[in-house]
Amino acid sequence: MASANGIGSIQGKQPLFSFGVISDVQYADIPDGRSFLGTPRYYRHSILVLKRAVQSWNNHQKLKFVLNFGDIVDGFCPKDQSFSTIKKVVSEFDNFNGRVYHMIGNHCLYNLPRKELLPLLKIPNHDEGHAYYDFSPTPNFRFVVLDGYDISAIGWPRDHPKSVEALKILSQRNPNADKNSPSGLVGLGRRYLMFNGGVGKEQLKWLDGILKEATHLKQKVIVCCHLPLDPGATSFAALLWNYDEVMDLIHKYNCVKVCLAGHDHKGGYAIDSHGIHHRVLEAALECPPGTNAFGYVDVYNDGLYLTATDRMSSSKMLFDSDQTCDHENGCTTDPITST
Ligand SMILES: Nc1ccn([C@@H]2O[C@H](COP(=O)(O)O)[C@@H](O)[C@H]2O)c(=O)n1
Ligand SMILES: O=P(O)(O)OC[C@H](O)CO
């Protein structure tokens, strides 16, 4: 399909490399339920979605790695089963014939503290409890994985400075007794919920260094985080607390082309004022039995092409600086194929 944003230029060519994606598996061995707002959640079926994803990624044969966007187990998982359940889901991922890069999400942190969780997820360089890292699958591309719960009221010991900082932010920004309730919060202020978090100063400094180096090396950067970074691509109630600070830093450079996220289960897509694509991936948890939500991304010099399944929409994201939205009704995803 030749389209307004010029995706025709990448179709028909061999990708430089490809990788698999899935988000919000939120498995638990409990009966089906619903979100707070009533959306059905299929806790036992979600691991079947993951199994089918792994099978499909292995059948593809050319995927270089897989990215898991976080929340591999649900907060309702009985706490005496947290460790074994996370191990069970990780071992499903490990059936993939390649490297799996995990992100942490709020539901992971409801189940285990960081010091137990990060080694299980094989988070690189987790010695100080950080879950941010980067890797370069080819010399011209770099993936940056952000830790959206760096400043968070979940996951750190209660008296940890990062937990104290998070509780202070929540007490200033959210007057509700239940800090997960957005009641009375208006517009972008709705993001100040306990199930979200922020990127701390040290991580921002690290990110600045990475982007500086990537610019010097002429690398294109894909930023990944459980929490979305753009208000156009998500419900405000799912945004990273300091998404604006992170994006101001990213916008100082021209190397970041795409930001990928999970957390907001319905998914989303937008192009920001600097031409960066923001794609929030639809959740595996909310797939009714027999349906799927996973995909793989083909990487080209001039764009990313997400081929997705069932409830995850396929997306074309071209890197050109003169970005225009290629969807008639605005910057939403443009479904192209379903496998
Ligand atoms: N509109 C809302 C949404 C959520 N909450 C609180 O957050 C918790 C988690 O929500 P889920 O969507 O993951 O079910 C929920 O238990 C509520 O405490 C809310 O108060 N108002
Ligand atoms: O992580 P959950 O399951 O609490 O859901 C987060 C919401 O989707 C954010 O809007």
UniProtKB/TrEMBL annotation:
Cofactor(s) required, per the database record: Mg(2+)
A molecular-function term among this protein's GO annotations: ADP-ribose diphosphatase activity
SUPFAM superfamilies linked to this entry: Metallo-dependent phosphatases (SSF56300)
EC identifiers of the protein: 3.6.1.13, 3.6.1.16, 3.6.1.53
UniProt keyword annotations, A-Z: Hydrolase, Metal-binding, Zinc
Domain (Calcineurin-like phosphoesterase) ranges: 18-266
Subunit composition and interactions: Monomer.
Protein name as annotated: Manganese-dependent ADP-ribose/CDP-alcohol diphosphatase
Species of origin: Cucumis sativus
